[in-house]
Specification:
single chain; alpha+beta; six-stranded antiparallel sheet; globular
């Protein structure tokens, strides 16, 4: 399987996992966590998971991408690390077609609902990116 195909498959797995938990409640982090963003974290998947107090359930362990499902007090999310910046960007671009919220650092991404991503940002730093909302186009009101 080619690298791009592996990355796309990883994106699909991440989004399928999140589809099951996208409706779960939880308001996410506090206003204080959202107002002051720390320097963006770095490290291995295990280092990042330890920073946010989750035990990663590894789903993909390949040279190009390592991906795990995590759950902590903020909720459930997918955490992925990448071998290259390009591989990360390709994965994010493919994944964003499915919607969702993405916390993006250097060679890592956390994917979850809005509240979870905001809470994680209070610990990991990074930039928030939002996927395409296809539900807005599913029907029309009136």
């Amino acid at each position: 399987m080619r690298t791009r195909e592996k990355l796309a498959a990883g994106a699909a797995v991440a989004l399928l996992v999140l589809t099951g938990c996208a409706g779960s409640g939880g308001s996410g982090g506090s206003g204080a966590a959202q107002s002051k963003v720390p320097a963006t974290a770095t490290g291995s998947l295990e280092d990042l998971a330890a920073d946010v107090r989750c035990k990663p359930n590894i789903q993909t362990d390949a040279d190009e991408i390592r991906q795990a499902i995590c759950t902590n007090s903020d909720g459930k999310f997918v955490l992925a690390t990448f071998a290259t910046d390009r591989g990360q960007r390709e994965w994010i671009n493919d994944a964003k077609d499915y919607g969702g919220y993405y916390l993006v650092g250097r060679k890592w991404v956390a994917v979850g609902d809005d509240g979870v991503v905001k809470a994680l940002r209070g610990t990991l730093g990074g930039d928030v990116e939002i996927g395409v909302n296809h539900h807005a186009h599913a029907g029309h009101s009136g």
